[in-house]
Amino acid sequence: MASDRAIRPVGRRTALRLGGAGALAGGAALAAGAGGVAAAPDQQLDGIWRSVFTRAQPAPNTVLNQRILTCMADGTALLGGPPVNPDAGRLIFRDIGYGEWLRTGDQQFAVSVVLTTYSEDGGALFETTVVLDVSLNAALDSLSGTYASTDRDFDGAVRGTRAGTVTAERMRLSA
């Protein structure tokens, strides 16, 4: 089950591939005019974060969801992760969520991304907006806070919502 997998260390090559893909996506978004929130030198959210989302609502199905959050200095945010198995026998895939982050206070941040969920055969199922409200610890190496997500059909109709907590550790890459 994808939700029960332990977080494994990321090798240097994998991290470089992830960083390269993130840089290309961020550059493409800026070139397209999406722009980002200009980062002040003390914002410190930019980096790669190993994240765990714990769903609290709808209860009683508490689900752990491990994902990688990448925040770039220009305010671009990317959220990616493994396929998920929401019910027995069905596997769904999510693309990389694209969005932005911004500083909302002293070591306080908001992150918002939009991603699409696909069936096993590649058909687009629905779109999800994920919004995080997180705090950065004093050592600048972990985040904690809440998240809320909304699934919508492509015509805008709400399919469902979820909410819970999120924690993250900054990934440090060795040279």
Protein architecture, described:
The protein is mainly beta. It has a single domain (2-170), classed as Quinohemoprotein amine dehydrogenase alpha subunit, domain 2 (Lipocalin, Beta Barrel), CATH 2.40.128. It is 11% helix and 51% strand. It has one helix spanning 12-31; strands at residues 47-57, 64-71, 76-80, 84-87, 90-94, 97-105, 108-118, 124-136, 142-152, 158-170. An eight-stranded antiparallel beta barrel has the order 1-2-3-6-7-8-9-10. Strand 2 (64-71) and strand 3 form a beta hairpin. The longest helix is centred in the N-terminal third of the chain and has 20 residues, at 12-31. The model is unreliable at 1-10 and 12-39 (pLDDT under 50).
Summary of the model, kept short:
The protein is mainly β and 175 residues long. Helices cover 11% and strands 51% of the residues. It has a single domain, classed as Quinohemoprotein amine dehydrogenase alpha subunit, domain 2 (Lipocalin).
Key structural traits:
mainly beta; Lipocalin; 10 strands; 8-stranded antiparallel β-barrel; 175 residues; disordered N terminus
pLDDT averaged residue by residue: 78
Based on the coordinates given, report the CATH architecture.
Beta Barrel
Level of helix content?
10-25%
**Can you tell me the residue ranges where pLDDT is under 50 for at least 5 consecutive residues?**
1-10, 12-39
| Strand neighbour order, sheet with most strands | 1-2-3-6-7-8-9-10
Any idea of the CATH topology? Lipocalin
Give the total of beta strands. Answer: 10
Q: What's the shape?
A: globular
Tell me the CATH superfamily: Quinohemoprotein amine dehydrogenase alpha subunit, domain 2
Total of DSSP H or I helical runs spanning 4+ residues: 1
Structural class: mainly beta
SSE order, as H and E? HEEEEEEEEEE
Distance between the termini: 33 Å
**Beta-strand share of residues:** over 45%
Q: What characterizes the major β-sheet?
A: 8 strands, antiparallel, barrel
Number of domains: 1
Q: Radius of gyration in whole Å, from Cα?
A: 16 Å
**At the first level of CATH, what is the class?**
Mainly Beta
